Structure formats: structure tokens, C-alpha cells
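From the pipeline queue, job 12 of 40. The input is one protein chain; the requested action is below.

Action: predict structure.
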Amino acid sequence: MCTYLTAKVEIAGSGKGAHGYFPLTHATVYVDHPQHAPYEHTVNIDFLNPAQGPSARVAVELTEEAALALIEAVRTALASAPPGLASQRTAPQTA
């Protein structure tokens, strides 16, 4: 059953698409039929930058178990680092 609930959030980061890396500004999360994954329903996450058009999108289709494992992995990674280390308030790296 599709929930028709789509959570949208503003984000800051980068994604890699067909033409290389691009800035990410938004993400949407929803449960629906996947386009490619071999399951009836998946947790779908689209990372995108609408200002750069439809090619500035990275999509993932995860099982419920994989989505929950990903959430825990992100929490574990953040908990193992000093607070604020990966914050957008931290000064950007200079090469």
C-alpha cells in the first residue's frame, strides 16, 4: 500500500550524477512502488537540486530493513565523531 506521504527536507551536501558531482539542496522520502528494485514497495529517497534541472538527482530505493539499517549507521557514524565536525557551520575545506 502506498502511503502518498512525501517528506521533504532542505539539505546541504553533494551528490554524484551522470555528469559528476553537484550540490544537493533538497531530499524527498516516501514509500511507493520502486522503478528498479525488485520489490513491491520500497522506501524511496531522492536527493536533488531543483535549480539545476532533472539531471541533478540521485535516487535510491531501499527495503524497510535497509532504510532502518542506514538510519542506525548514520547515527553511529555521527556519534563516533566530535559534535559539529560535519556541520555546515564548520568552515569549508580548502585545498
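Job complete. The beta strands are 6-17, 20-32, 42-48, 57-62.
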